[in-house]
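job 3f2a | input accepted
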Amino acid sequence: MAKLANGRKPYRIWAFALIAVAAVALAVLAYQGRFGRNLELAMKTGTALLHLSPGLNRPVNVLLMGTEGVIYTGYHQSYPSFRGNTDTMMLVRFDPRRHRVVVMSIPRDTRVPIPGYYTFKVNEANHLAGPKLSVQTVSQFLGVPIWRYALVNILAVRQIVHDLGGVRVYVPEPMYYTDSASGVYVNFQQGWYHMTGLQAINYLRFRDGRLGDIGRVIRQQEFLKDLVGQLKSPSSWLHLAAVARSLRSNTRTDLTQGEIAKLAVFMASRPKIVRILLPGRFGSRRGVSYWLPDPQRLPGLMVRYFGARSPLVQTVARTASFNPSRIVLGVVSPMHSPGAGQQILPQLQKLGFTHLDLVAANRPAPAHTEVLTNGRPKLAKAVAALLGVQKTEVSPTGVFGVGATLVLGRDWSKVFAQAAN
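job 3f2a | predicted structure (421 res):
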């Protein structure tokens, strides 16, 4: 994306603030039907008046990072630091050609070569030499160019939730953890909470569950969904100016004003959102625990979603034809009907699924039964077609470690009428 001229007029500061508000809000507000279409038109008109080039005309990869760095200046007095480890990292591709936004979470413990240093956890790069080294590390490791970055201090999350008057979040399992030194106090039961800013960041920090940091990554994506739901309420729109101020004071980015405007206009066009977790497994090297990337699945995923062009990647990206006996199918029974998975088990086995992982849901059931896969849309559609399920989604929030997940919704008995009867 071309940069703006260096000259900055006074009105540009206000332009940046307005565009920052739009960048935060458009992803949500633009989905409100006619209002979204009007907002898209308003954004295009506004950027034209400010002499900013509207519209995104090619795919763009942006690295989003979150750090918990804080420098203390006195008792309960501090300001954000941006040189700590990046405990949250997402590679985002804004793709106008396919009209979608792909968000891939990169676990903090992912083992990667850090250029000029050593092979270690990806979150170390920012601590060593700042966000540009993080960009270089991720770009070289994944084999795709990254044009821009945004580094957000976790204090922004606390302040944004405060600005919105709290956020309603579903906690999927009991959580208990105390660290008085860092001020982390987690004490949640399973269920819905109206979280304060402090509760929200402690919830997002928690990584002591069964899946450790991977569980935290999945909760972060679910939290973003809950936050988006909060922003759909008209009462939240009044707080967007405060949200923009909180973001600006807690963010470092090399995105220009014009580039933010382009992204905002694109988000106003209501692109499809695709969520992915970098595929891999838990492991260790020389006594250090890591998230070890999957060398078989990752190249194909980068081709499919992020525009990788390596000949090696293209050869391994092809997948075999679908055979239900060759995948592990996770089956999530709804909370209101915990025996549903067991009831449809014979039907699944008759269809050829021999490797099944039946689990109970840890959150309220969706309205419709769906099939989830982590970055494998063709597999999701193949499984759904065989089962007679209409809805599929690319998401990392299914059963961990399986090929595909069947999430039984409130309509499960209708979908599997033969098993239910």
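job 3f2a | Confidence is low (pLDDT under 50) at residues 1-36, 311-320.
job 3f2a | closed
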